[in-house]
Design brief:
The protein is α+β, with helices and mostly antiparallel strands. The chain has helices spanning 3-19, 49-54, 81-97, 148-159, 172-187, 236-242, 253-265, 430-438, 574-577, 668-675, and strands at 31-38, 104-114, 123-131, 137-144, 195-203, 208-216, 222-229, 269-276, 285-294, 298-309, 312-323, 332-344, 354-365, 373-386, 390-404, 409-425, 445-458, 469-479, 495-507, 515-527, 564-571, 589-596, 601-612, 617-629, 640-652, 655-665, 684-686, 707-715. It has 5 domains: 30-131, Roll (Ubiquitin-like (UB roll)); 137-216, Ubiquitin-like (UB roll) (Roll), CATH 3.10.20.310; 222-294, Roll (Ubiquitin-like (UB roll)), CATH 3.10.20.310; 307-400; 427-715, Porin, CATH 2.40.160. Strand 15 (390-404) and strand 16 (409-425) form a beta hairpin.
């Protein structure tokens, strides 16, 4: 679903809520519009407004809850004098727990934004005054009690665990976090009965704190008897083979979690509980109980949505049928269908109204030859439109064999076959457009056979909303010399190379709520035989070229709008429009279209800072830098494009709802496009963005705005 369609659906849902609400909720007492503090730290410190508000009982009506129209959705928070009177003590306690032993709360200021009346509640803003003083530092961090085998195994490792380091700022949160890390370390290495008693000695006068952990590792343990309950359709032996552990292995809580993940991946279980029996701390053989609950093997779901692209609105209906135990075996089958109807939003022409549809059938098994091999076969057909270009039909099929070296590392390989057929072309200049994009001699259809290889290493904690971990992928797509673009042309022989790396680091500092730094680097190269006389890449069909721009890569640019473009004109005289590469001699110019040409090489680097906020929200500043080159020999630093901005994320049940506002400077090709009048058929120029739909750029010579804006509304993180 595109950005505009998602925003329309969001507004529609809000309208539905308003329609079910007859009147504004009556509020008793003064509404607390906001709470702020003076004397505390900044947003990036360990004593910001959000941290202090978390220690209070008194809340506020942030994010516009107190104002129209959000006051219809949630009851505003009112002033609670009793709670506010003791919140000062709560704040001082919070400061002390986080190392500010000299902190003093100096009182509240109540500012009336509006006075209450007979039919309207009053509204206030609270300002708390604090004097945190200087924070206390850790003077000594000692670990005692570890002896025997535990000492030999863990001594050096534990000393490097956690954030309790000499000279670091003290906080109880850091102490508990380090303790949890150490217990996890013990539990993953054969000591599930480990216990830690911490002692803290503060010296307020010196602003120093000593921390000691007294460790009782307990007995060294192994996996004992494994009992399986609840399996009906799946043979018990298959369950055992799926588990990464067996009786006699060293006990590891991490391996138990891996076993749970593997059993879920079979697709046949709704609930998987792997429970160790730790009731007897002297037992070196820990019994394991695996409790399984099967899911519904067959499901049918109906849905819908809408796309908005190129001035066309496309409502869609979709179905999804899934069977996870086909033929009473571990075979999963999924059938997806969608149908839509596309029309111009201004209703100007029925020629722009067309049906779109898609059908996708996939069959897979996670156990082709043992638990580490899988097989997936897919067949699909799609009919859709490239906005302002053409309508296409794209049947394809693929076969993939997967080998899992570990739960995180895997390789896939197999062949693919597809047909790409252009059904109709937008506008009156079909021959010009097809020649511009696909090259001379293209008859409207091409076939492509490839052999694909992929490598994936995924150590992310959550693929949908990652907080920590790393992710790597690499791929090679080799075109097989079977099909050619035309009878007298050479077969497709290109090689598509793709590499991507992502890293996520969760940072804790000074007792602050953790935030995540996310980085991504991606590169793609197409190896071919070079260029023909028309500047077309030899041996690479147009849709297979690399593109940049959009909500998932280089924000600030519309989808695929980075890099070179070709100008194609439409005239009142269609004969003139068919004059390849010739300037018009007659006719009236009706429209001018700037079509992305794509390239042979692209690179992308993105960085985000994800700061947690109350109410499931997060604040995300970001920067994207990319480069797209039409040929390998023309790569230049002048092709680098950059955009940055800020975003807000809301953690919903369907994934993070993302709102990004990207800003970027206007590049030379932008200004050239603004100054271009008239049209030259077949003329290829550098271009970065469609200025006609980018906020602020303008097209008239009387406007000189030095930047462009792009608003993005979608579901899911950018990466």
């Amino acid at each position: 679903m595109t950005r505009i369609a998602q925003s329309l659906l969001f507004l529609a849902s809000i309208s539905g809520v308003f329609g079910c609400t007859s009147a504004r909720q009556k509020v008793q007492g003064d509404i607390v519009r906001s709470i702020h503090f003076e004397g505390n730290g900044s947003f990036f410190s360990g004593q910001n407004d959000y941290q202090l508000q978390g220690a209070m009982e008194q809340g506020d009506s942030s994010f516009g809850i107190a104002t129209f129209p959000l006051n219809y959705l949630a009851k505003p928070v009112t002033l609670n004098s009793k709670a506010l009177s003791v919140d000062g003590y709560r704040l001082e306690t919070w400061y002390a727990e986080n190392g500010w032993f000299d902190a003093k709360f100096q009182g509240w200021e109540v500012h009336h934004i509006r006075r209450g009346s007979f039919n309207r509640a009053g509204m206030v803003r609270l300002i708390g005054h604090v004097d945190p003083g200087a924070p206390s530092l850790i003077d000594n961090f000692n670990i005692t009690g570890i002896n025997g085998a535990a000492q030999r195994v863990f001594a050096s490792t534990i000393q490097r665990t956690g954030s309790l380091q000499k000279g670091g700022q003290f906080s109880l949160l850091t102490v508990e976090y380090t303790k949890a890390e150490m217990l996890e370390l013990f539990g993953n290495n054969g000591y599930p009965y480990a216990r830690i008693n911490e002692s803290i000695r503060a010296r307020p006068a010196q602003r120093l704190v000593d921390v000691n952990f007294d460790v009782n590792a307990g007995v060294s343990s192994r996996i004992g008897e494994i009992r399986i309950e609840g399996n009906v359709a799946i043979d018990r032996q298959i369950v055992r083979e799926t588990l990464p552990f067996n009786t006699g292995d060293t006990f590891s809580a991490k391996e138990l979690r891996r076993g749970q993940t593997r059993l879920f991946a079979l697709g046949t279980y709704a609930i998987v509980n792997i429970v160790p029996d730790l009731s007897d701390p002297t037992n070196p053989n820990v019994p394991i109980l695996i409790k399984l609950t099967e899911t519904r093997f067959q499901t049918l779901r109906l849905g819908g949505g809408a796309d908005f692209q190129g001035g066309n609105l496309t409502p869609r209906l979709a179905t999804r049928y899934r069977h996870v135990h086909l033929f009473d075996r571990l075979i999963q089958a999924e059938l997806r269908t969608s149908v839509g109807y596309r029309f111009a939003i201004d209703g100007s022409s029925t020629d722009d109204s067309r049906y779109t549809y898609g059908v996708n059938l996939g069959v897979s098994t996670p156990r082709l030859a043992g638990p580490n091999w899988g097989l997936t076969a897919q067949a699909s057909v799609e009919q859709d439109q490239i906005p302002d270009q053409y309508v296409y039909l794209n049947p394809k099929t693929s076969l993939r064999v997967t080998h899992r070296f570990t739960d995180a590392v895997s390789v896939t390989f197999g062949p693919s076959l597809e047909v790409y057929k252009i059904l109709t072309v937008e506008g009156d200049n079909a021959q010009v457009l097809i020649r511009s994009l696909f090259g001379a001699g293209f008859d409207g259809t091409y076939q492509l056979a490839t052999l694909d290889f992929g490598f994936t290493a995924d150590w992310r904690d959550d693929p949908l909303d990652t907080k920590r971990g790393t992710y790597y992928r690499a791929g090679v797509r080799q075109a097989l010399p079977i099909f050619a673009p035309s009878p007298d042309a050479k077969p497709y022989t290109f090689t598509d190379l793709l590499g991507e790396a992502r890293t996520y680091r969760r940072i804790r500092g000074n007792g602050n709520k953790p935030f995540t730094i996310a980085l991504r680097a991606r590169g793609q190269v197409l190896l071919s035989e070079g260029l023909d006389d028309d500047g077309q890449v030899v041996g690479v069909p147009y849709p297979e070229l690399t593109f940049l721009g959009g909500s998932a890569d280089l924000r600030g640019f519309r989808i695929n709008q980075v890099g070179p473009y070709e100008t194609v004109c439409t005239y009142s005289d269609s004969n003139v429009a068919d004059a390849f590469g010739q300037s018009p001699t007659s006719g009236t110019e009706l429209a001018r279209r700037h079509l992305p040409v794509g390239g042979q090489a692209s690179a992308l680097f993105s960085a985000e800072g994800r700061f947690a906020l109350p109410y499931g929200l997060s604040f995300v500043p970001f920067v994207d830098t990319g480069l797209l080159s039409p040929t390998l020999g023309s790569i230049s630093p002048s092709q680098i494009r950059v955009a940055g901005g800020v975003g807000v994320r809301y953690a919903s049940i369907v994934g993070p709802i993302r709102l990004d506002l990207a800003v970027r400077p206007l590049f030379p090709e932008d200004r050239a496009a603004r100054a271009t009048f008239g049209c030259q058929l077949g003329d290829v120029q550098a271009r970065g963005v469609d200025l006609f739909s980018t906020f602020g750029a303008g097209t008239g010579s009387d406007r000189n705005i030095p930047f462009a804006l792009n608003l993005i509304i979608t579901i899911g993180q950018a990466f």
